[in-house]
Specification:
356 residues; alpha/beta; eight-stranded mixed β-sheet; six-stranded parallel β-sheet; 13 helices; 34% helix
Amino acid sequence: MAVIGTGAIAESHRTAFEAHHEDVDIVAAADVDEARVAAFCAGTEHAKPYGDLDVLLAEQEPDLVSICTPPSLHVEQTKKALESGAWVWCEKPPCRSLAEYDEMTVSERDGGPYAAFVYQQRSGSAAAHFRDLLAGGELGRPLVAHCQTTWYRDAAYYAVPWRGRWETEGGGPAMGHGIHQMDLLLHLLGDWAEVRAMTARLVHDVETEDVSTALVRFESGALATVVNSVLSPDEVSRIRIDCELATTELTHLYGHGVKDWRYTPAPHVAEDAVERWHTPADDVDSSHAAAFSPILAAYRAGRRPPCSGDDGRQVLEFIAALYKSASTGVGVRRGEIGPGDAFYRSMAGVEGGARG
């Protein structure tokens, strides 16, 4: 394994790989900041620091590459890694647009290498348990949902030059923050059908939005609201899903375990059913380590991993639809945004992402 970009999020990747130390060896890391990559490598067993990705790929020939750089660099770095024969595990957001996603994944080959993306909130045993309950009909049909990522970021956070700009970040909190909860919502409820949204820039001096809201209709008929904000002092990440037989609520901030999921039965539901809802077979928290497990298993088997291909693209298409709806004032249906659409090339809907 090689790590590209050794900023703060790279520590979560290193922790994930150390959790799989019997299978994974971090052999190298690359960063334009010489001191930062040296410090990262000093925290590993024997990783070699590099300042150039091409040199790293040529010398180390890694099996897997972990990409932890800003979004504007993901396409070029992912393509280079895939073309070298390395599988890729890339941080969110995958890239800045649907066009970039399709460009970066064209370098995949049947049987690998594949590019997968870090949507760690869908990992862990509690989310899998809910999906099993839903698939088995134990909760009844999903009807109403709420997805909330209301966090707080100050002016110092946006002083980092690439943040808050269409060209370098690709979007606001819908892209950089709420993407995890929205991916989890789609993972739990399946295909969405239509989005109607609004965005606003209420506080921060940025090009992108600092708050967004959306109404969503799923193919199942379920309706949902989605709120993404970096203006909220009382920070919380929350998903609530009202089904025919129960309300399921997940409340956390950056990660969750079984303890964070609450099931409230409808009045006529028997108590023994409720007990099973609260007791999944395992208690594994969501985390980078838990999210990496299926990536590693897919690599060993030579098959497409989760959070890649169409599965990795679905939340990016959802976000593009959110931005298009907010810009045009009309609903956007799944599958509507293709190569001829301005929002296929940029979440801003204009060439170069210059929309104010």
